[in-house]
Write a structure and sequence with these properties.
With 471 residues, this protein is an alpha+beta fold. Helices cover 57% and strands 16% of the residues.
Length: 471
């Protein structure tokens, strides 16, 4: 038989197990946990503070280098100096160098704290690293090379590369970083930061050096562009100066040409006037005109013409305001004591800037100058076929030498005076010859008249005689 369920029996509820109560940590364990967590937090805080300090230092260093770059355009020395100083300080390095690369060798251009022996070695000749050296690898790969210990590098131990030997033995280098300076894809130099101990650089320090290398490239490029701009501006300035100088020279040449033209016209007018007087006036008028034109065109205060007669220079014409020497008309000895005598004896033009100061050279002339008050003196001999026949003299109150054109003009007036004197001599000689010829003709006519009278008298006598004889 199937049992009927007892409906009156209550269903029993399943029993729930109570969760086991968590064990409370002991007070010691709790203290240890808190201490460990605090230590970790302090360590993290210390790390963060150190990283923050390093970041700030790097930021300050970068800003300092950028400030130097902006304040020293075109001048790389302070830029490289600030860059190396900050790099060595922040990266806790011993010394650092910057090289310029010309495609064949590295030229040391900046250094900081570098041993003097290594600097001297690098400056003697360009450093040409082989492909096995860390620097050579950096040049070839155009990437940063970090060397932990240079003393174990094959380039030093086996190859004995001179550059590696110098940097290890002269510089005491062990750990160092070589960062190429890249302008786009071209290597234009390297930045090296070195330690004299085996201690690797951190990634952040290497990153900072790479940042400095990029700034160095910017500075170099800025300097190049600025120098090109300066050269262009200097070329432009020189071109403008040359143009201005050409304009000044052209203006000066134009003024000189115009002045020469005016002077030439004045000289031509004066020459024409003298020649006209020579052809139509007596000798005295000609000499007076020559003296006047010589004083006026040569800007002199006085002009005098002397004739040489019996070794005495006699004044024959004068024009101007300077007093005439008291012995001038009687005759001044043609010796070397005066300028006119020296010009006559030497047969050449003589100029004295300050005659009053020439006591030893022209004793008599210097005394005349002191007494009469004139200073600058110019004398030109009158030469006929190389033989002196006189002298023309011009003087000034002040010390103001006559320039070359005025000297040439006075020599031209001297030639005109010689022509006038020679013409007068020839005219006088011709006049005397003509007078002699007239007198000779007159004497001949008188003789002919006498002969004719005698002949006529003889003819009459003969006729009378014949007439008487015929009767």
């Amino acid at each position: 038989m199937r049992r009927r369920p007892n409906r009156d029996r209550k269903l029993s509820k399943p029993r729930r197990r109570k969760p086991a109560a968590a064990k409370r940590p002991s007070r010691v364990e709790a203290t240890r946990g808190v201490t460990s967590s605090a230590a970790k937090q302090k360590l993290q805080i210390a790390v963060l503070r150190r990283e923050l300090s390093e970041a700030r230092q790097q930021q300050i260093a970068t800003a300092d280098v950028l400030r130097v770059i902006s304040s020293s355009p075109g001048d790389l020395e302070p830029v490289f100096g600030a860059m190396l100083e900050n790099a060595i300080r922040i990266c806790d390095a011993t010394f650092g160098n910057i090289y310029r690369y010309d495609g064949e060798g590295l030229h040391l251009v900046a250094w900081h704290n570098t041993p003097a022996a290594l600097v001297e070695d690098r400056k003697c000749s360009p450093y040409r690293p082989s492909s096995t050296t860390p620097t050579g690898r950096a040049l070839a790969s155009k990437a940063t090379v970090h060397v932990l210990d240079a003393a174990v590098e094959p380039a030093y131990t086996e190859e004995r590369n001179p550059g590696m030997v110098a940097v290890v033995e002269l510089g005491g280098m062990r750990t160092y970083v070589v960062v190429p300076l890249l302008k786009e894809t071209e290597v234009i130099g390297v930045l090296t930061v070195l330690r004299q101990e085996v201690r690797a650089f951190t990634d952040k320090q290497i990153e900072l050096l790479q940042n400095f290398a990029a700034q160095a490239v910017i500075a170099i490029e800025n300097a190049r562009l600025l120098n090109e701009l300066r050269q262009l501006l200097e070329h432009h300035r020189r071109a403008e100066a040359a143009l201005a100088d050409s304009e000044r020279q052209l203006r000066k040449a134009h003024d000189e040409l115009e002045m020469n033209l005016v002077e030439a016209m004045k000289q031509q007018t004066a020459t024409s006037e003298v020649m006209r007087i020579i052809s139509s006036s007596p000798i005295q008028s000609v000499l007076d005109a020559v003296a006047e034109n010589a004083a006026r065109l040569c800007e002199a205060n006085n002009a005098e013409i002397f004739r040489l007669e019996s070794n005495l220079l006699r004044l024959v014409a004068s024009y101007g305001e300077i007093p005439v020497n008291i012995h001038a008309r009687e005759g001044i000895p043609a010796n070397r004591d005066r300028v006119i005598g020296r010009a006559t004896c030497d047969r050449r033009t003589i100029q004295v800037h300050n005659l009053a100061a020439e006591n030893s050279e022209f004793p008599a002339g210097s005394e005349d100058a002191k007494r009469e008050g004139h200073r600058t003196t110019l004398a030109t001999p009158l030469l006929r076929e190389g033989v002196p026949i006189g002298v023309i003299l011009i003087r000034r109150w002040e010390i103001r030498p006559f320039y070359a054109k005025q000297i040439a003009l006075l020599e031209n007036f001297a030639d005109q005076a010689v022509i006038a004197i020679e013409n007068a001599r020839l005219f006088e000689a011709e006049k005397q010859r003509s007078l002699a010829l007239v007198q000779a003709n007159r004497d001949l006519a008188e003789r002919e008249a006498k002969i004719r009278r005698l002949v006529d008298a003889n003819v009459v006598g003969i006729f009378i005689w014949e007439l008487v004889d015929g009767i």
